[in-house]
Design brief:
The chain has helices at 28-45, 65-73, 93-105, 128-132; strands at residues 10-13, 49-53, 80-85, 114-116, 123-125. By secondary structure, the protein is α/β, with parallel strands linked by helices. Helix 1 crosses helix 2 (65-73). The longest helix is centred in the N-terminal third of the chain and has 18 residues, at 28-45. The termini are far apart. The model is unreliable at 115-135 (pLDDT under 50).
Length: 135
């Protein structure tokens, strides 16, 4: 049964590269700046969680969600920021943990990590203590 007293509403993005009004494709830089504006808007509207996912394809702008989340954290006050996907198969899990732990250390942030097991698998929460044992 869903506990509606603790239900949260969230949004997520991978930074889809979209078309401008003239039909040309937006640049990755413009897409990332738009994501920061969307994170600010989510905060202003009282959205509970705003997630940014990692993707390594030319039609997505975010390959480093922790960098984008840090930029969003500079312009938000209360929205919980999170990774929508972290691709561990292309990174060192310990370094991923360290980068997100650094973000989480900021007094205004809470940044839980997400794991994506393959390009089509679902998102799974990571247990950071699993990786601390490796250090």
């Amino acid at each position: 049964m869903v506990d509606i007293e603790h239900l949260q509403f969230g949004l997520e993005t991978f930074g889809d590269i979209v078309a401008n009004e003239d039909g040309s494709l937006q640049t990755a830089a413009a897409s990332i700046r738009q994501i920061v504006r969307e994170g600010k808007l989510a905060d202003d509207l009282g959205i509970d969680v705003f997630g940014v996912g990692e993707h390594h394809r030319p039609d997505y702008s975010v390959s480093s969600p922790e960098t984008v989340l840090a930029a969003i954290s500079a312009v938000t006050k209360q929205v919980k920021l999170a990774t929508a996907v972290t691709v561990l198969s292309s990174d060192d899990p310990v370094r991923v943990y360290e980068r997100f732990a650094t973000l989480d250390a900021l007094p205004w942030m809470h940044c839980p990590m997400g794991e994506h097991k393959s390009c089509w698998a679902g998102v799974h929460l990571l247990n950071p203590s699993r990786y601390l044992a490796m250090i």
